[in-house]
UniProtKB/TrEMBL annotation:
Residues 17-63 form the F-box domain. Gene3D superfamilies: 1.20.1280.50, Ribonuclease Inhibitor. Pfam families: F-box (PF00646). The lineage of its organism: Eukaryota, Viridiplantae, Streptophyta, Embryophyta, Tracheophyta. This is F-box domain-containing protein. Coiled coil: none annotated.
Amino acid sequence: MRRRIAGKAAATGDGGVDRLGALPDEILQHALSFLPSRDAVRTCVLARRWRHLWKSAPALRVTDVDAFRSARHVNGFVNHLIVLRDRTPLREREIAVYKEYDGGGYYDSNGDRLEHSQYIDLWVSCPNLETLKMNRCSILFLGGDRSMNISSQSVRCLSITRCDFDHFVRARALISIPTLVHLDLELTEDCGLVPAFESMMPSLLTTSIKLDRSCNKDDMGCSLLLGCLSHSSNLDLMAGPQAFAFRTALKRCTTFSKLKILSLNEWCVEPDFGPLHYFLRWSPNLEKLNIHLSKPYRHVEETEGCYDSAEPFLASKQFRVVEIKCRAKDKLVHKILKVLSSCGVPAEQINIKKIN
């Protein structure tokens, strides 16, 4: 009896049945996709069956950059990984880059130097790439033509947050992604020029734009940006204080015919409620308006780009609700209510929520 118990215990202990290895290849490859790619490759020494599993992992993750001696070693690892893996489509890519450029450049698997634009093209030209996220990246203009093009015929979700578009060169990045469905763009201080979207995006559904006050002088960039967002049905448009460029850009924009949900902050009421008037008038299918007032109101001077709202009009017939989030006793709320009332928005459709 004791021998049977001992034998059974051995079968389920450290030297017993490989329960993980009994899983189908698809499950193991899915599990490997959550590991940093460097660790996934190392599983090839576990057993004969694991020798090639990492080649079919549907994700590429290089997040442990501190384990590499330099950016060139990171590039070398990624290039060899791409060459050695099989034809399984990559569903997800996550790459953490160095904060400082070491001047060594980028190299392909043959050791030939790549310009930065060519390096970007290696990723955005992937025919199955659907989601591209760039966070805190320094996008350098190293080419002789001083241009940077990011184009794709497959990307559906694009997120560019807190990136630096080489503000020393003052060149504008050109983005052409007609298949885009979701866009998240956040530009902070000294980010460089606002990138231009070359093509219209007819499939665009949700858009989140956050611009710092440093973008105020880029009138052309803001105009190009707003013009490409006219197909969006859900628009979150936030800007820093005194958003002169946005107010000027509204003079050149067309109708937001598909817009149903709109979120704005303080910039829409400075100095004459012009931006608010504009969206109420030129969004014929607007259903919900969110206004977030988190900072004390400061009157600013009018500019030549201010919108002329002298001609009366009525807001969208599809209007259902207006939600205003504000500080207690915010003097702007009463003025906003007057604007909404003058545009035919009934008081029962307006909700006011206090924030701390």
